[in-house]
Amino acid sequence: MTVKVVLVGCGNMGHAMLAGWLKSGQLIPSETFVAEPNTELRARAEKLGVTTGASAADLPAGTPELVVLAVKPQVIRDVTAGYKHLGNGQTSFVSVAAGTPIATFEEVLGDKTPIIRVMPNTPAAIGKGMMVVYANAHVRPETKKFVDELLAASGAVATVDDEKLMDAVTAVSGSGPAYIFHFIEALTAAAEHAGLPTETAKLLAMQTVYGAASLAAESGEEPGLLRQQVTSPNGTTAAALNVLMGDDRLKTLLTEAVEAARLRSIELGK
Ligand SMILES: NC(=O)C1=CN([C@@H]2O[C@H](COP(=O)(O)OP(=O)(O)OC[C@H]3O[C@@H](n4cnc5c(N)ncnc54)[C@H](O)[C@@H]3O)[C@@H](O)[C@H]2O)C=CC1
Ligand SMILES: O=C(O)[C@@H]1CCC=N1
C-alpha cells in the first residue's frame, strides 16, 4: 500500500491537523499513515481510521507525496533522519516545528528536497486554525497547491516570503491560542471576584470572547470601531478600558509576551 501523506508525530498539533484534514474530506484515512511511538496516541489516531506504526521503520513501501513532521523541535533533527531515504526525491516535507529552519532539514534530507515550513495552531482541529506557510525553492507549484488546499481545510492560510518572519508568526498565531485561553481564565477569575458563581463566570467569559471574535471576523469592521461601539462616554466600559489601556498597559504586556515567544523560537532553531 502506498500512502499519500505520512504524519510523523500525532501529539497535540499533529492530531489537531489530522482531525481537521479527515473531517473536511481533504484527506481520506486509507491515504494516510501516522508514525507515533506513544501507544495511546496511536490508538487515538486509529480511531480516525488511519493506519499507524511506531516509527519510520513501519512505513509502508512506496513514495509518499508528503511527510508532515509534527514532533518537538528538540528531537526533530534525529526524527527527520529516519526519513532520509525520501530526501532529494519526489516526496515533499512539511515541518510544523517552532524555530527549526529549512536549512536544518536540507542538511539532513539533502539540499534538493522540497521543504515547507508551516506554523499552524490548535484551532485547526475544528477548521478554525491559522496556518502560515514558507516554502523553499524546490517545492513544485502542484505540491504547494496540494499543501495549501490541505491546510485550508484546517482554517485560514497565509504565506510569508522571508523565513525569519516565521519566528514572529509562531509568537503571534502559533502560541496565540494559549494567550486567549489564559484571557478566558483571567476573565473568569475576575467575574468570580465580582461575585458571580463559577459556572456563570465561565459561561460569560467564554461566550464573550467567542461572540466578540466572531463579530470582529464576520462584520469586517476595524476592532477599534467595534470597541468604540461598546464604549459609552463616561460609562462602564470606559472605566474598564482606562485600566487596560492607560499607559498602554495591555499593549505593553502583549508586546513583551510576543517578543519573549519570538526570541524562544529563534533559540529553538539553534
Ligand atoms: N501545540 C501547539 O499548539 C503547536 C505546536 N507546534 C509544533 O508542533 C510540534 C509538536 O508539538 P506538540 O504537538 O505540541 O507536541 P506533542 O508532544 O504533543 O507531540 C509530539 C509527538 O511526537 C511524538 N514523537 C516523538 N518521537 C517520535 C518519532 N520518532 N516518530 C514519530 N513521532 C514521535 C511524541 O510521542 C508526541 O506524541 C512542535 O514542533 C511544535 O513546535 C506548532 C504550532 C502550534
Ligand atoms: O509552545 C510551543 O513551543 C509551540 C509552538 C507554537 C505553539 N506551541
TrEMBL record:
<dbReference type="InterPro" id="IPR008927">
    <property type="entry name" value="6-PGluconate_DH-like_C_sf"/>
</dbReference>
<dbReference type="GO" id="GO:0005737">
    <property type="term" value="C:cytoplasm"/>
</dbReference>
<dbReference type="GO" id="GO:0055129">
    <property type="term" value="P:L-proline biosynthetic process"/>
</dbReference>
<dbReference type="InterPro" id="IPR000304">
    <property type="entry name" value="Pyrroline-COOH_reductase"/>
</dbReference>
<keyword id="KW-0028">Amino-acid biosynthesis</keyword>
<dbReference type="InterPro" id="IPR036291">
    <property type="entry name" value="NAD(P)-bd_dom_sf"/>
</dbReference>
<keyword id="KW-0560">Oxidoreductase</keyword>
<dbReference type="Pfam" id="PF03807">
    <property type="entry name" value="F420_oxidored"/>
</dbReference>
<feature type="domain" description="Pyrroline-5-carboxylate reductase dimerisation">
    <location>
        <begin position="163"/>
        <end position="268"/>
    </location>
</feature>
<dbReference type="InterPro" id="IPR028939">
    <property type="entry name" value="P5C_Rdtase_cat_N"/>
</dbReference>
<keyword id="KW-0963">Cytoplasm</keyword>
<keyword id="KW-0521">NADP</keyword>
<dbReference type="Pfam" id="PF14748">
    <property type="entry name" value="P5CR_dimer"/>
</dbReference>
<comment type="similarity">
    <text>Belongs to the pyrroline-5-carboxylate reductase family.</text>
</comment>
<feature type="domain" description="Pyrroline-5-carboxylate reductase catalytic N-terminal">
    <location>
        <begin position="4"/>
        <end position="99"/>
    </location>
</feature>
<keyword id="KW-0641">Proline biosynthesis</keyword>
<comment type="function">
    <text>Catalyzes the reduction of 1-pyrroline-5-carboxylate (PCA) to L-proline.</text>
</comment>
<feature type="binding site">
    <location>
        <begin position="70"/>
        <end position="73"/>
    </location>
    <ligand>
        <name>NADP(+)</name>
    </ligand>
</feature>
<protein>
    <recommendedName>
        <fullName>Pyrroline-5-carboxylate reductase</fullName>
        <ecNumber>1.5.1.2</ecNumber>
    </recommendedName>
</protein>
<dbReference type="GO" id="GO:0004735">
    <property type="term" value="F:pyrroline-5-carboxylate reductase activity"/>
</dbReference>
<dbReference type="InterPro" id="IPR029036">
    <property type="entry name" value="P5CR_dimer"/>
</dbReference>
<comment type="pathway">
    <text>Amino-acid biosynthesis; L-proline biosynthesis; L-proline from L-glutamate 5-semialdehyde: step 1/1.</text>
</comment>
